[in-house]
Amino acid sequence: MLRRSGIYALKALLELALDPPRWQSVNALAQAQDLPAPMLEQLMLKLRRAALVESRRGRQGGYRLRRLPADLPLATILAAVDAPAASLMAATEPEEDPQPSDRVTRVLNRRLLQALERELDRLTLEDLLFDLRSARAAFSETGGLLLG
Hints:
Blueprint: H1 4-18, H2 26-33, H3 37-49, E1 53-56, E2 62-65, H4 74-80, H5 100-122, H6 125-138
């Protein structure tokens, strides 16, 4: 359902959110999330232009979040890498005067898109981070909570 660019951007930002103050290289992010480094580099540049991450050159450089995960709506992240909510829905807009059944489909699709956009505006990177930590805790060998 999500475009590859959106999935990769979310995975990279989740990796950065796990250790916010640490600068991480594209190669480290790509390796940690099993992503292609060349495509990730292009996405990180888009995220930097959108002021979602900051970058630093040099041996100790890389990328880190510019904002707190709670201040990063998923809609903002997806829009930064050209994967807006509208791309998640199949194109069903007829070019000619629609039949009554086509009108119903178009209205339903519009309402579903609006609901999806509201949810993507509401959900933040912090929400995904919580889900990720919960999943890791559930599947850890100790079965305990992972803190930090």
